[in-house]
Amino acid sequence: MRELLDISSQRLIIMLEILLENDGWTTFANLGSAIDTSERTVAKDIVMLRQRWGHHLNIEVSKKNGVRLINQNIASMGAVFTDIFNDSLSLQWIRELLFHPSKSIEFYEDRLFTSRSTLIRLLPRINLYLAEKGMRIRCENNRYDFIGTDEQYLRDFSASFLLELYGLNLKKYDLELDLSVIKDIVLPVMTRNIQPDEFSWAVNDEISIIYQMMFYIISLVREQSGYNALSSYSAENEISAEHLDYIRQHFPGTGIQNLGPVHEYIKNQFNGWSSDEEERSVTAAVSEFCERLFSDMDHAPDQTTEKNISYIMRSVYFSVKLRPFGTSELFNRIYYFSLSLNRENPRLYKVTSNCLENLSKKIGLDVSSRLADVLFWMCLICPELTDVKKHYRAILVSDFGNSHAEFLSKKISAFFKRESSDIIKIDVCSYMDILAGKDLKCYDILITTFPGLASAHERPILINDYPGTDDFCTIYKTLQQRQL
After folding, report:
1. What is the CATH number of domain 2-72?
2. pLDDT tens, residue by residue, 284-296
3. 32 Cβ partners below 8 Å, 6+ apart?
């Protein structure tokens, strides 16, 4: 939904993202080039960011070096993004249309403290964006409605973007509901459609439960307003009489028949198989995904871990299947989690990406776009994966004799030894063996004190006779850059 923001807001977001992704300094010229604006405008934007969000951001400015973001805390950045999104008149209007539909332009003028001409000017731009997702704002007889070709997707989309704007702060939506009751209504639907041995993980996932609660609330609002989703699914066995009475008190026009589509959509996110054959083929492909992932990462998971990751992968499959378009993703915090992971553990990032591509081919549905989500949930389920290191092989040659080479080998191995697991295996080789044409292709790197051996291997590392921190860092960085 960033396309609905004004140009200055979009520029601020892109600027912050560039600063967030860069560890060091970024020049004003590079920022201006990336945002397609002048260095003068960049400087003004930086001043404004520091004035308004200095308590969230720690932006350092240097005439010589440019700009850098010292505080790279993602939650703090998300708070800044949320403020920017909340300034958007377009997003505010969509929110009003959800909770106060079929009103005149005058009503929205008063609610949004803006003019008729401004709203009418915004409408084509909003509809151009919504049309790509099968939705639009309709105007008939000066009555405005937010509608879509797929009512369920519209609710899904709305739940996502509202959570990103306000979370579950119902005061922002003029609603007075007991969230604990909504949670008690949603959980039984999830319970019926998640395998018992996986439910403990799902129920501890607050993000998923909060989303399902928001989807349920939006669905009740839409059903009450007359925007019905069609379904033959029966919700009678999934809601108590007490809870149904509670819903009717707050949404008088909503009965048990209105809840069927809502419960069905939640069910399909956890158990949305169209046929037994689909379930068998996808389950087999997911099992193969897990086997290949753990094999490539040299990690043996326990049975519970493997089941939970299989559950996450099936959920990802259902999510892609149900959503023909992406939801709003105003500020995708999980995406930035994956970027940080990629910087610290590129091997896990690449292995998971490759496995997802292979899974997509097997199931005939592209799930590669959910790489960030898969990495996030996978790390929460199995934190040990982030500590699995590739075992590299190094050849070490000293021009100071074999005894010195053995000393260097022990010194380097001790530095990289972690939790009784050797990240790097070092073979000592004499200079004479190199002259005799010893094959070095099977080694990831060559470590040596002899400058003349630089051409003997594609990754030579020249170290001091007594290696220090800089030498160890050079070895580590070279291994990190090693292609998988």
Report:
1. 1.10.10.10
2. 999 999 999 999 8
3. 38, 39, 41, 42
